[in-house]
Amino acid sequence: MSSPTPKTPLLPVTSSRTSWDPQRSSTHSIQHFAGSNPHANTSPLTSSSILIVATYLLVWVSQSEYAQILMSGNNVKGGGYNKPGFICYLNHSILIIFLPIVYLFSRLYYGSTFSFSSFIKNWSGNFTFSKSFYELSLLSVGYFICIWTWVVGLTYISVSASNALYQLQCVFTVMFSVWFLGEVLTQNKKVGCVVSFLGIISVVLPPMLSPAPDSSTDDDPTLPKNDSNASLLGTLFTIASAVLWGAYEVGYMYISDRKNVGTKITSEDASKFDTVMETMMTLR
């Protein structure tokens, strides 16, 4: 009787301390984000994941409320601070305080193989440094405009309407992913788009059809409800922000994939996005 064949382990055995390889690290994170990681965790939702999603929703709604209060001047001593550009800049540039935390985490995870100099040296990946800098700078400008239009929209419509309209980002992300990245429009994505539309309609449509009992919105009494022009302007700004956010997500994935991996996007899809990027870089 022959001896039983030993089972092949599902995952390779590795050491507890991983050496830092920017190419491999970026590849793994992109594959996991895109859902192509063969060893990704497919277990049902855990209490931790539900808590993370709930915390994200709470923080997002809270910052929307705070931004509207700050802009409108409601319950703010001295009036509102109607400077959406500076609010956007401060809101995101303040994240620089977390850079030391990122560095410490990288040192703990990768050990002595990680250094700031090696990160700067390998940052551009398959691109030249100037190409990476220009394309990521363009992406950052688009992201800033995205947040700016969202903040401006909050001055004209309620927080509930803003958050509902902003869910159009899911639809635009799917559209841009299919067009620029060549992704397949699966049944799950179609269902997700339909659910997003139904959610938007259920929140935005009833207040528009019901008669206004007074001259203020339900969320913020400082915002006029009977001003159709202001509501339309706020709606357009918010939808523009949703479009830009969908473009930002797809653009980030596209640039990261070519910069660090360069294997999942066809040349035909690359030519479409390259045309857009090169045109924008020429106009800068």
Automatic annotation (TrEMBL):
Region of interest (Disordered), ranges: 1-33
Alphabetic keyword roster: Membrane, Transmembrane, Transmembrane helix
UniProt cross-references to Gene3D superfamilies, sorted A to Z: 1.10.3730.20
Biased composition (Polar residues): 13-30
Keyword Calcium: no
Cross-referenced Pfam families: EamA
Keyword Chaperone in record: no
Annotated GO CC locations: membrane
Record-linked SUPFAM superfamilies: Multidrug resistance efflux transporter EmrE (SSF103481)
Spans traversing the lipid bilayer: 84-102, 136-158, 164-182, 191-209, 229-248
EamA domain boundaries: 100-204
Superkingdom to which the source organism belongs: Eukaryota
Protein name, per record: EamA domain-containing protein
Annotated organism of origin: Triparma laevis f. inornata
